[in-house]
Design a protein that fits this description.
The structure is a homodimer. By secondary structure, chain A is mainly β. Chain A has one domain: Ubiquitin-like (UB roll), CATH 3.10.20.810. The first copy, chain A, is globular. Chains A, B: It is found in: Cytoplasm. Chains A, B: Keywords: Amino-acid biosynthesis, Cytoplasm, Histidine biosynthesis, Hydrolase, Magnesium, Metal-binding, Zinc.
């Protein structure tokens, strides 16, 4: 396992002030957007080298391998970087629900009201 | 058009230090992840009330209606908030390519190397 990111990849990242890149996680089979995570350079290096999605927890301030405690692992099929280097698209095979609430995705519960008649 | 966010929605947002929430943008028909944008409270209020995806440009430090100059507009079908309030999923009908480079999505160009044999 590599904990150091390839310098050529590292040079392309545009990080937030706290050194993170947003990672959009998508089910490779259904196309569902499962969650949004955050990756530090080390989290991305571990994700690429182990094939297990690994994030930086902003609340706990630590690396976090998805499913390590819940068993709801993410097996990485593909990682893409966006055009300006500030977002990753991680396509995964998701075991069980992606959300810690037990929902299939983290976006299942909360639909915001859209104006019916845009003005 | 409303430029002020519903206080009940505003209370559920968990913003970055610069007051933004990440917005994952997905094509409502194909399920493709098109781009990642950032929304301030006002950008979200405008998005919900006009049905046109509106972001905060971190580089230009201004509100930005997607497609205003390029014509590559996004018509919003659905906006969802994630379980911990720090990400939005915006499902849109995309006119033309979503990426300013002319690619269909902002994630088309750059596939990162994944270890073939995870260790």
């Amino acid at each position: 396992m590599s904990t150091t990111l390839d310098p050529q990849v590292a040079a392309r990242l545009k990080r937030t002030d706290d050194g993170l890149v947003a990672a959009v996680v998508q089910a490779h089979d259904t196309g569902e957007v499962l969650m949004l995570g955050w990756m530090s350079d080390e989290a991305l290096a571990r994700t690429l080298s182990t094939g297990r999605a690994t994030y930086w927890s902003r609340s706990r301030q630590e690396l976090w391998v998805k499913g390590e405690t819940s068993g709801h692992r993410q097996w990485v099929r593909e990682v893409r970087l966006d055009c300006d280097g500030d977002a990753l698209l991680v396509r995964v095979e998701q075991e069980g629900p992606a959300c810690h609430t037990g929902e299939r995705t983290c976006f299942d519960a909360d639909l915001l009201p859209l104006a019916a008649d845009p003005a």
